[in-house]
């Protein structure tokens, strides 16, 4: 039995901001067959494009978002950040930022960490894709810095959500990857002879280092691997699986 039934999770850290829409999708409520069952919203999978489009339509409809107001990027596990001024599909960015209303930023994940940020004072948002490469490249810290430069964001005014991703007990890596992480975010497993990496904690640390307080950071309690019935996991499903979306944006005040 799945722990979740909805097509999305709304992070509690944002619940007091009525004009903000922020969520991450689950794998429930779509039409895709195995192995993409069922709400595969990934544009670059072997699933049928018709299925993916219907799944995306359902997900955005559940959130009350107009699909024509979506911005996304083909992610490359880098640290490039795009200031988004219009909806559309972009290329080569792993973080999107904007302060325009009714413009909804998305990142695609299936083990990597999605991070959503809302600057309540300047009315600005960010959606970040951070796998191990993005995390070690400090894309979260760079995104907060970009928001400061572009929008005058002060970290004290920000709330952030570190979303569902692979958990530390499932993410084993070799020395070449482990060497790029601080000791506090890795643990050596003698049985596997591998290091285990905590991506959530590493990205939380970057948020805190920028000046966002712990009390304004929410962390998903779920794991793509341990909760594979509810979320897609690229690693545990050997790459043949769907994708989730994390989305954030705010509606204009009438």
Automatic annotation (TrEMBL):
One of its GO terms (molecular function) is hydrolase activity. CDD domains: YfiH. The keyword Metal-binding applies. InterPro entries: Cu_polyphenol_OxRdtase, Cu_polyphenol_OxRdtase_sf, Cytotoxic_necrot_fac-like_cat. Keywords: Hydrolase, Metal-binding, Transferase, Zinc. It catalyses: S-methyl-5'-thioadenosine + phosphate = 5-(methylsulfanyl)-alpha-D-ribose 1-phosphate + adenine; adenosine + phosphate = alpha-D-ribose 1-phosphate + adenine; adenosine + H2O + H(+) = inosine + NH4(+); inosine + phosphate = alpha-D-ribose 1-phosphate + hypoxanthine. It comes from the Bacteria. Pfam families: Cu-oxidase_4. The keyword Metal-binding applies. PANTHER family: PURINE NUCLEOSIDE PHOSPHORYLASE LACC1 (PTHR30616:SF2), UNCHARACTERIZED PROTEIN YFIH (PTHR30616). Belongs to the purine nucleoside phosphorylase YfiH/LACC1 family. This is Purine nucleoside phosphorylase. It comes from Larkinella terrae.
